[in-house]
Amino acid sequence: MKTFGAWKSFRLEFLKFRRKPTILLVLALAVIDGLYLYAGNRTGRSSKAPSWQSLLFALSIINGIFLSILAAVLASRSMDLEHKGDTWYLLHTLQSGPSLYGGKLLSGLFWLTLFCLLQDAALLLPGKLLGTPEFPPARMLLLLNLGELAAAMVLYELQCILSLILPNQFAALSVSMGGTLAGLFLMFVSRSASIPWTLIISLGVVRMNYDELSRSASYYWELPPASAYIVTALYLVLFLRGGLALYTRMEEGSVLRTSAVLRKSRSVHTLWPAELIKLRRSPVWIAFFALPLISAFIGTINFMQNQGVLSFTWDSLWTQHSLFLGIFFLPPLIGIFCSLLWRMEHTGTNWNLILTLESAAKLVRDKLLAAAGVSALCILWTALLFVLCGKLLGLSDPVPAAFGQHLLFGILACAVIASFQSFLSLVIRSFAVPVGIAAAGSLAGMMCLVKGWDYALPFSLLQLGMGSSNLTESVRALPFLLAGMIYIALCFGLSVLYIRRTDVKTHE
Length: 508
What we know:
mainly alpha
């Protein structure tokens, strides 16, 4: 009966995803995997065809980011409906808690398995286009897929628990990004499995030797250690048992109830802007404060441990502080924030009330200003940590004059991404899908920069403006400012037009 109930819940999960672009998100991430492998090796220094070992190693690294974010997005999307209204009370009259949890696990297993299958095509096609001979050993490819799937299910189980006990999905997704950033750092220290976010890389089947003198890398096959499989199995069992225990006892609000719900509501007559009223008791600022802090800590340690490759300058320190934050983590964080800003409008019949009180232009403007303002504070906080760390390390030279320009351009680029993500969160009622698009777009933006298409995507402006690859190199101000203003005006205009021309939907 429990198995039958899990399959029934699995069908219910598919009803949630039926009109959501989940399949497009999974396909897009696999396509970007393939484009990353192709573009990264085609533009390499050597004209020799890359080996399958080098391609599989790069795939493990990039999936250490993508699969982590995909698992968090799928879990958040699965839990989003349960936190709306009194859905928990209804579901518990139809299904047992373990059956609901089992259905979510089967749903996550389906989507993650589909991604692993699509990534094989995304690996083999670029490999053949680049001239790599034969095919990778079937045994190694199978072990890579099984290892990534097991590690991704660990993350999915963990995110299901977080998305259950944290009704605010911003917090759950922020934990995922912070863990992913920590996992990337630990990868440079040790390949052993420790935290859940290191498992994908730990279960890879290729290892790399880097020669600092020649600055060349060699790759070789090596099976993961038995300890990595044991740790993965322990995590799977631990989170499975923890999830079953929580879902068995779960009633709406019994696991975690935020202080904002417990407090008495105050008068709505206030001078605070509406968007700040929504956010003043929300823990959204924690992620914007914590991620730069984690990035600065990781970047400083990596800077000190790689002095054989990096120079002891402000430029090299900035690359370590801002590279991962600007490329992989800040755009999804802005995406989460914009989804949170539009979440209230998409709930219940709030659209009917809001559009009788505010104009479409003011509504879009307030959200854009809120997202851009918080993102600007994040950039300034990152800059402050960078200067403090440099002084503590003993960098005696003055900070390069171009640093101020990069800060201003980084703030403008955050406003561009905020306008784009705000438009997506307006059009797409799902909380998590725009976040997944931001994660994929950040990598696509990096690829556009490699190709020289500096202004092709909003995300490429952030990496270009912050100067993450070269702090001392100045950016052409006029084209950058023009591209930024065009993106903001276009997204703002489309948002206002969409609200004015689209019928209001008052249900999911």
